[in-house]
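Worked Example 4.2. Read the sequence first, then its structure tokens.
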Amino acid sequence: LHAQRRNEPALAQSIEALVARLPGRVVPLASLIDAALRDGFDAQLAVANRRRAEATAFYEGRAIDPVMHLSSDVASTPLTNLTASSMSQGTTAGIEAATPWGTVLSADVARAGTLGATRFLSSSDAARFTVGVTQPLLDGLNQRTAIWRAAQLERTGAVAQVTRTRQEVVTGIELQYWSLAEAQAVEAVYNRSVELAQDILRRNEELASRDLIANVDVLTVRSGVAFRESLYTQARQIRREQSDALLFAAYGAAAAQLVD
């Protein structure tokens, strides 16, 4: 914003200098925009929605997280004809993971063996490696990862919404700022109008006291002063309302401490 301000035409700079001299609460436009992007309700809500979408996407990522399983068992079987027993041992390990399009891939390794307790019993050992692919069909197609994919889309939309909201906040603050500047200028004009009318009223009262003009002229000017004062009061109220609206748009809940 500061870099842009240096490149602005002289007319824009003179307008902002004029605004700085107007009555009412005067805050630089750049400060209001920075505050609105940081503390404004709309900007905070957009950021909160983005964080929620990111948390949901992270949580739903468990649908494609790999799953590992490991099991081992040992069994002893007594032999009825021999005073001995045979011992068997089995171990299985594997991993399973789902792809984003729903296909489930798995790999398993198994090993089993038997240990003879005497010379009459021989030992044996066997191993097995299995690879599996599971693809849901019909209504089950992509159902496993549907929630995860929806969370990804929601996160992408929330990130884009933050950018859009920030642009809308900047535009809204600029419009409200210049609307307030207009209201301040109108208030200044009506204030000057009241001052001029009061000067004329004092002059006419002085002339009427010397019988140089009729009293009706004094009443006419006095009526004009009252009319201009009512216009000035309305302009001042409009300026205050627009000032408060701009402060709330920029500072959010903290604006309550800035409003008179």
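Now turn to a second chain, presented in exactly the same format:
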Amino acid sequence: QKKDQKTALKLQQKLARDRQLKSDDAKLAALYLANRQIDEGFASIQRGFAKPGDNAPFLKMLRVLLQKEDRPEIREWMAAQPPTVDGYDELQLLLAQAEMKADPQQARQRLQALMEKNDPRAVILMAQAEPDQAVSTLQQALERKYHPLIAQLLYQYHLKKGDRDALKLLLEQIEQKQQEGPQKDALLARGYLRLGDRVKASAFADQLEKKGLKAQALELKGDIELAARQPKQAIRAYAAALRLQPADALATKLFQTRI
């Protein structure tokens, strides 16, 4: 018991210095939840929501709480919050996740409402909840409004299914609509390599190198050389990448290519 009290005191002192938890309710909620005092922690979250201000800290704690506890009273309180409350959409998203087992139909209705607001997180959750309809859900969402997270998940689905035609169309869409950046270049390089278009894959690997990510670009070039059945060139590229940025996965790839 004394050990628990010392731990609680240390945590309370740490929370008192935490600038992100500005209100006493947030500090108390974090303290109670850390000590597995669920009822007290939830009561502090409720008090915090009842006051005007930023609810982001309480939403984070609710996420933790819902992962630990599946209580109908918590879900009922969340469902009763008005749309004017700060962080309402985030609250609905958390509630939908919590309801997936208890009330999947209601959870889908909440996600659908958020999808109409073009919330990519809701789209992804809906795709995960309905795997048979996942590709259709993601494609329709991309048509309404492009978002890189949705495109990346759809990319993974196409790779898994081996749908080359769909993958090619998606890569073209990413080229046209996604903002320039290293993530885009890496995704397109790997995507075109999977389609066997080594010329386009090399072009995007070059773009990656120009953006300063030389190690990542060299690893991609090694993959391209290996796909072209040029193991010696692949080994040189992997070795150069490994010198710049040591990594176990890359070292394994180099070893496997050498043997």
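Notes for the reader: The mean pLDDT is 89. Residues 222 and 234 are 4 Å apart (CA to CA).
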